[in-house]
Amino acid sequence: MASTDGTVFATEGRVWALACDREGFGQWRTVRPVDLTAGSMGAPIAQMAHEPMAVMSGQVVGLVWASPEPEEPSTTGEGRATLGPAGRHHRSLVLTPLDGGPTRQVPVAAMMNGPVVASDGELWLRYEDPLRLVAVNVAEGSARVLDVVFDCTPMAPAPVPPPGIDLAAHESDQLDSLRSGLLEGWRAEDGSVLPFIEGVSFDAVELRGEFPNTEVVALFCSDGHPGVRFGRRWRLSDDLGDVASTEYAGIGLMEDVLAEGHGMPSLEDCIPDEEGTVWF
């Protein structure tokens, strides 16, 4: 085919090519049957302006943007009109019968792009909330949201360091690198030593915990928050054991502290833990 930027969907013993030939049909998206035995692709059965995602129960399931509430345009400083909160678009599904019958629309707000799965007459899609799924009954034209509450922690594989990594040496190197930057600060052209972050003094930079939960912990005070001890921590491994670097950790902390209007919390928001540390 001249252009193959669509997708292939298989269900109910059929295979379909979805939106795989946009160049030849302009803005239209096509749905074509695929014959795997003959190694051929049929002529377009359906053409539509929206994005086809699946074919099941004799209908093409397409994705469109819908705006059920009147837009409240606002004007930016450059004169362009933008949609305010009242006019925020959300996603909907359009069901188009393969036999050319009338279409139906199924509102599915906060749905995400991504793979879809067909099972028992329903089409399963991702929801914006990672703990939710959307199931669309194509035949009925209805949708339901399923809350997923499942602790898969016991099934996770045991963390293993990458091959060839000396874990103790890696953790020590990351600690030394971060400690030298935070505690030694910057050296000015005249030879004087400047603090790593203006207005911040570091009390300690140390390792805590055991693999894979080993962390570099920095404890510090801020001139603008007398009597408050802050803490920042960086994990050196993820849950599977892959190691992490602290190369830019100090710079990230500096940016967070010095961010105008979005930096350190207010004194009333500084709530310490049982050890007296406010984690920032």
Structure explained in plain terms:
This protein is mainly beta and 280 residues long. It has helices at 22-25, 167-184, 249-258; strands spanning 7-11, 14-18, 29-35, 40-41, 46-48, 51-56, 59-66, 73-75, 81-83, 90-97, 104-107, 117-119, 122-126, 132-137, 142-147, 186-187, 193-194, 200-208, 215-222, 229-235, 277-279. It has two domains: 7-66 and 85-147, 6 Propeller (Neuraminidase), CATH 2.120.10.80; 167-279. It is built from three helices and 21 strands. The two termini are 54 Å apart. Mean pLDDT is 82; it is low at 68-89.
What is the total domain count? 2
Structural class: mainly beta
- CATH-defined architecture of the largest domain: 6 Propeller
Strand content: 35-45%
Overall CATH class of the largest domain:
Mainly Beta
- Indicate the radius of gyration in whole angstroms: 28 Å
What is the CA–CA distance across the termini?
54 Å
- How much helicity do the residues have? 10-25%
Low-confidence spans: 68-89
Largest sheet: 5 strands, antiparallel
What's the helix-strand series?
EEHEEEEEEEEEEEEEHEEEEEHE
Write a concise synopsis of the structure shown.
The chain is mainly beta.
Task: Explain the layout of strands and helices.
Elements: E1 7-11, E2 14-18, H1 22-25, E3 29-35, E4 40-41, E5 46-48, E6 51-56, E7 59-66, E8 73-75, E9 81-83, E10 90-97, E11 104-107, E12 117-119, E13 122-126, E14 132-137, E15 142-147, H2 167-184, E16 186-187, E17 193-194, E18 200-208, E19 215-222, E20 229-235, H3 249-258, E21 277-279
Parallel strand pairs: 20-21
Antiparallel strand pairs: 1-2, 2-3, 3-4, 3-5, 6-7, 7-10, 8-9, 10-11, 12-13, 13-14, 14-15, 16-17, 18-19, 19-20
